[in-house]
Amino acid sequence: MSAGQRPRVLLADDHLMVAEALKSLLSPEFDLVGVVEDGRALIEAVATQRPDVIVADITMPHLNGIDALIRLRQDGDRTPVIFLTMHQDVTFARRALEAGASGFVLKHSAPAELVMAIRAALRGKTYLTPQLAGEVLETMKEGPNRKADPVAALTLRQREVLQLLAEGRSAKEIASSLDISTRTVEFHKYQMMETLDLHTNAELIHFAIKHGLVEL
Questions:
Q1: Spatial distance between the Cα atoms of 186 and 175, rounded to a whole number of angstroms
Q2: Within 10 A of 142 (CB to CB), how many other CB atoms are there?
Q3: Which of 11, 64, 164, 177 fits a 20 to 30 Å CA distance from 183?
């Protein structure tokens, strides 16, 4: 970003009204270079739009925001990502920070906090909403805790399969979306059931909803 140039922000949120409200909130100080509605579209847009900062929801179709961030980091992209979410559970904030997020802001706090979070991210800092900061830091001191967040026991690929399954996709559709075989999809489902001690597709889907991988 050259001197005098306004920072470029890419927004990822599947709620149109939220996206519109954020446009007006950010437009005085930032250039909004695009709005996408799911995690896969986010990854594609980062490659074409080259934003300075990404503001993303966590729960989005096809690929949730945290797993999209993990994919970006695996691809070598270092664009700061700030999560703007309804999830007030410390588990989500911790999951986001461990994935490499630069900020965690609750949607109802956006008018007061989002611009501050973006400015912090542009300076290489991390912004955590004060409402959760103390509790998050305490839990992170304790080290990994899979009982507190069983989602952490799943691989990224397993979470991708689980999210698509919970969105109602068939094994064939999941295989096509992820460019893997249906046999591999079934293997991932079996592995997840073993890991989580679940026994049916319905139990897997309930798990995905309970832990915020999909919305009801």
A1: 9
A2: 9
A3: 64
